[in-house]
Write a structure and sequence with these properties.
Largest sheet of chain A: none
Low-confidence stretches of chain B: 1-14
Structural class of chain B: alpha/beta
Low-confidence stretches of chain A: none
Strand content of chain A: under 5%
CATH architecture of the largest domain in chain A: Orthogonal Bundle
Strand content of chain B: 15-25%
Oligomer: heterodimer
Number of helices of chain B: 9
Shape of chain B: globular
Order of helices and strands of chain A: HHHHHHHHHHHHHHH
CATH topology of the largest domain in chain A: MetI-like fold
Order of helices and strands of chain B: EEEHEEHEHHHEHEHEEHH
Shape of chain A: globular
Helix content of chain B: 25-40%
């Protein structure tokens, strides 16, 4: 190597707190103005909220009723079942997180299995067996309420509607006219109707399709409605993802000898789903919030319980505290979902085209 | 190179059992556009042929009918004794025996380099994972990218990606390899590394059909060159004769266009 021109350093950047302030907040002059106005707003509203939260708010309405918010009318003597269920989920989630890097470890296969098994197990644990079973007496699904009900509706709705949505999306892109038309009609019909009417329909119509011996609990009927509703939206999101996978991927998959099913499972769907994670998670967040609509079929999820709590005589007039608390719970759940989605996108974004 | 191929004539009946691809009067239309107008081509095991011709002449479409990425509407295509019909079993059987390399690589971007290679052997050939891995590692070494196994395709250079695509196709141990303009999307300095792999492959005795404008490659390894224009084969010959004495006017014009710079 010859001694050519010496390596030039990049121009000096202004550093330090003052440099940062000047660069980002106070130059040019209109940024100074914006900064001053925004700080004014923040101080004003922050003061009002803090004063209320720490001075005039009567939080005992929340602390006294904490159990009611969480499990509602679920019998207090059986509350341990909810705690155990939570413990199982937390344990599985922790293990999944701990083994997220160990791709080839057999533990991961067991974890998938454990997740799948955990659903019916938790279902049985929460519901119990017969009326007079000594260990797990029946807790009718009709009394499930509060945050417990919200979580059951949202999680089961999400988990059940996702595979259904994938199938509908594939069906709508199918080359078989019957499948294609049926899926299209289903998706468009559901998307053309508000969730409230789907919930009403599932309450009233579902029993007509089932044999008379089977009486589905209101919760089950609401769950069915939510799942069918959400599946249609999931399907449309996934269809968008499928359309974004280049035709060359289909050709390459065929050229190496994969049949249609393997091509979809191994090559097309992984890419399509990765593309639509933000859209799908957005839709799951809105499903989570839409569970509040089950109030209209007589179920008391978190918001319904909140309303009931404010009706108690000793806590009359304390709407602000109760709704603030409920809003906070919703925010935490939704923010966790959106945070998880960003992590997932990052993790799957490796090897981006 | 196969010494017999110099004197081989495609229509000789005594060689039928050695014939691995037979295309008779293949026609295809895109809507009302007649892309393939009666293509006849017979290939024996181990032969390497190059197809060239102006763009839009149907040469890519033609080789894509051989592994059924495009469906022909008239005529017959028989690959290794299996006729391509609407029977899905036949189509899959043929696709398993043919490897293909695309102009745009078409690697699986969500899979690591090594998994791109082992995917089809594991799921289609049902090989145990160890065996697929061992063969994949050998193939990556053969195409010169053994140290890239744990990366994703998007992290490789264009030339490396195309060599990976060759390894992926070879992993199924195909009897025939199709190359659809394999170097057209590459930067000039990367073309040679891909051609080197293809030359080595051609000399290994595998049957190859290569659509390309790389006339150096054609001279070096092709047994015959086919010249395509307007959806049919205008003429074919050994490379020496093809470049020295083109018979048709259209061939002469094409050659003068691509060889003058």
């Amino acid at each position: 190597m010859s001694d050519q021109a010496e390596v030039k350093k990049p121009p000096r950047v202004e550093v330090g707190v003052l440099g940062w302030l000047k660069k980002n907040l106070f130059s040019p002059w209109y940024n100074t103005l914006l900064t001053v106005v925004s700080v004014g707003f923040v101080v004003f509203f922050g003061r009002v909220i803090l004063l209320w939260a720490f001075h005039s708010a009567r939080w005992e309405v929340v602390t006294t009723n904490l159990k009611v918010f969480m499990i509602g009318r679920y019998p207090a003597a059986e509350a341990w079942r909810v705690l155990v269920s939570l413990g199982v989920v937390a344990l599985l989630a922790g293990l999944t997180w701990a083994f997220r890097k160990a791709k080839d470890s057999p533990v991961r296969r067991w974890l998938v299995l454990a997740w799948i098994v955990s659903f019916p197990v938790i279902g049985i644990l929460l519901r119990g067996f017969g009326e007079d079973n000594p260990f797990l007496p029946k807790v009718s699904a009709e009394v499930w309420s509060g945050l417990l009900l919200t979580l059951v509706l949202a999680i089961v709705g999400i988990v059940a509607s996702f595979p259904l949505g994938v199938l509908l999306a594939l069906g709508r892109r199918s080359r078989l006219p019957v499948v294609k038309v049926l899926c299209t009609i289903y998706i468009e019909a559901i998307r053309g109707v508000p969730l409230i009417s789907v919930l009403f329909m599932s309450q009233l119509m579902l029993p007509l399709f089932l044999p008379p011996q089977i009486r589905l609990a209101t919760v089950m009927r609401a769950l069915t409605g939510i799942t069918l509703f959400s599946a249609a939206y999931t399907a449309e999101n996934i269809r968008g993802g499928l359309a974004a996978v280049p035709i060359g991927q289909y050709e390459a998959a065929q050229a190496v000898g994969l049949n249609k099913a393997l091509m979809m499972i191994l090559v097309i769907l992984p890419q399509a789903l990765r593309n639509v994670i933000p859209a799908i998670v957005g839709q799951f967040i809105s499903l989570f919030k839409d569970t509040t609509l089950v109030v209209i079929v007589g179920l008391l999820e978190l918001l319904g319980i909140a309303k009931a709590v404010t009706g108690q005589r000793q806590f009359i007039g304390l709407h602000q505290e109760v709704y603030f608390f409920v809003a906070l719970l919703f925010f935490i759940c939704c923010y966790l979902m959106s945070h998880a989605s960003r992590r997932l996108e990052k993790a799957l974004g490796v090897g981006e085209r | 190179m196969n010494p017999e191929s110099e004197v081989h004539m495609p229509s000789e009946s005594s060689e039928t059992d050695r014939e691995i691809i037979q295309c008779r009067d293949v026609h295809k239309w895109f809507g009302s556009f007649h892309v393939l107008r009666g293509v006849n081509l017979t290939l024996c095991k181990g032969e390497v042929v190059v197809i060239c011709g102006p763009s839009g002449s149907g040469k890519s479409t033609f080789i894509r009918t051989i592994n059924r990425l495009e469906e022909h509407q008239k005529g017959t295509i028989v690959v290794d004794g299996i006729e391509l019909t609407h029977d899905l079993r036949n189509i899959h059987a043929v696709q398993r025996e043919i490897g293909m390399v695309f102009q745009q690589f078409n690697l699986f971007p969500h899979l690591k380099v090594i998994d791109n290679v082992t995917l089809a052997p594991i799921w289609v050939r049902r090989w145990p994972k160890d065996r697929a891995l061992k063969i994949a590692e050998e193939l990556l070494k053969r195409v010169g990218i053994p140290e890239q196994a744990q990366k994703y395709p998007g992290q490789l250079s264009g030339g490396q990606q195309q060599r990976l695509a060759i390894a992926r196709a070879l992993a199924m141990q195909p009897k025939i390899m199709l190359f659809d303009e394999p170097t057209s999307a590459l930067d000039p300095e990367m073309i040679k590394e891909v051609l080197d792999v293809m030359v080595e492959l051609a000399r290994s005795g595998i049957t190859m059909i290569v659509v390309t404008h790389e006339m150096g490659f054609a001279k070096q390894v092709a047994d015959r060159i086919y010249f395509f224009d307007d959806g049919s084969i205008v003429e074919h010959n050994t490379p020496e004769e093809f470049f020295r004495n083109p018979r048709e006017e259209r061939t002469k014009k094409f050659l003068s266009q691509i060889l003058t710079h």
